[in-house]
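[job 4471] stage=fold_predict status=RUNNING
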Amino acid sequence: MSDSASMEDILLQKLIRILETNLENEKFGVKELSKEVGLSRSQLHRKLNKLTGKSISQYIREFRLEKAMEMLQNNVATVSEISYRVGFGSPTYFNTCFKEYFGYPPGEVKFRVLDNVEVIPNREDEKLSKHLTAAEIDYKNSSTTNNSRQKLILGAIIAILIIAVSVYYYNYHETSKPLANEVIKTEKSLAIMPFQNLSDNNDNQYFADGIRDDIINHLSKIQGVILKSKQSVDKYASDGLSGLDIREALGVEYIINGSVRKSENRIKIIVHLINAANDTHLWSKDFERQFDDIFQLESDISKEIANELNLVLSPKELQQITNAPTENVEAFRLYLQAKYLNGTYEVREKKYKESLAIDPEFALPYSGLSEMILNKNWPNVSQEDYILAKEYALKAISLDANLSDTHRVVGVIYMEYDWDWDRAEKELEQAILIDPNNAEAFYYYAWFTMNVKGDFKKSRELLHKCQLLAPLYPFAFLLSAENYMRTEDYDLVLEEANMALKNDPNSLWAVWLKFLAYIKKGYNDLAVKELEKSRLMIPNNENNIDAMLVAYKEEGINGIFRMINKMDIEREYSESSIFYQNAYFIAQKFAFLGEYTKAIKWLNLGFKNKSLQLFGIKYDHYFKDMRKNPDFLELLQKMNLGDYDSDVDFKD
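[job 4471] inference complete, writing structure tokens
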């Protein structure tokens, strides 16, 4: 062996040791590996490319995927757990990479015949081989004998059976948990990073945020664009990540960033377009105008970005981008301050109303007021707030029917408060039609289809689209877990709740869902341990947790439910302003305890006072044993939710 060959082997062995040591560390990337090896990025890239033909990031990713395949073959854990063990921060992105590399999703590994067959990565010159089953490979490599005909028939039968099982599994299991970061190849997926404020006045950050938001709104309405939600993008904005890192985290092809400088009546905006696949700069341009030309400026930026991405704008899309929301730039400035400046609800409301005082026909401040009112006291929204929010939202739509978020807000009000199911569905569908990148609209429509229509499959499809746009949105994982609670897929409840906790470690909703899932699986002690975790999430909650542990010791799980209800009822009677909102949750716990008369009493109280969550009553798993209770069925009729079909199946 030559000295050079020996050094190459030593380098590769060192890389393998380092990567194995840091396998679970999702933050361990190109920079960290180069530092550990003691080479610069460029030096390591040259050496590795010469030895393997791969870039550093490709080598790391494929190393992780090969390790994942070993774990999957040995059935050491679930797909989600393995994705974290091999350093993928998102199981959905892991699914995407795995499928691209091996040619099929990780969930199919257990259904494929892998004995004596090398798993072949998805390379162009091996496309045929990667689809062969073990039986087909055995036949292909065997010599021609007298029984070759029988082997061919046997191989074909086995292949058909394997394909049938794989298709069934993929359609009914993998598709029920779709890939949130799956990049649709016929579309352009983008992450628009926060724009920097380069103005002398630091308070002008609100203006930079507003410019970015308007460009997002313009691009989101263009056919062929997938825009990752701001909530997901912003999580990585301050980490100094490379384009490759952001691509891996969010599954995007392109990144847009920029800066804004406002000086008196002049605006200068610099925009950059980056190819995330190789972290290369594709295009940049400076735009400088008078403040009075702000709407034309935003339109020009959006059109140039679309042009650079080879997107063809329809006349309708062009009109949407070109239309100015108001003719008064001062009204627009006040609107931006109300929406983006950090301040109390009172200050923001004052800014919105000042904007409307200048231009009463400006739709966006009405829309902003509507959503602000709903968010102000959520989840304890009063009837007065619902009515006022609806009034503002309908006013906004009357002035501009193309406001996606406003249609979403109206749809939610029709669903949560008015119980007008037809209008709720129509408004949520309209929100998505106007803006196919509105992740929250998909989320609330998924709520609607699950709770009102009992269509769990469609709800998951809508959640898939939500997660595609907002891969880090914890509420999407929570709603998915709720969906699986209703279909009694408790292992999937635990997986989705864990994903929610990964993105929001203080999610009490996620802890409660895990608590319920463990109860349903018969692991009461594990359930209680989950509940104990909430001790750290709620200030001064230690005494309550200790009391629950005593109740569990004395009366089991039922004791915990009784104690929680006792605390809630005492609190509600002392705080009558939010009394009606928790009536629904109290009814749930009485139903769990089998105390159906008390459950009906509290449900009727919730009905009388328009409890926020009551729209979910029909398919709520808590009330499963009450679906033949005449009082319960009467309540469904009063809410126009209808009866149950005699052959209704609550599982897909």
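[job 4471] summary: The mean pLDDT is 82.
[job 4471] exit 0
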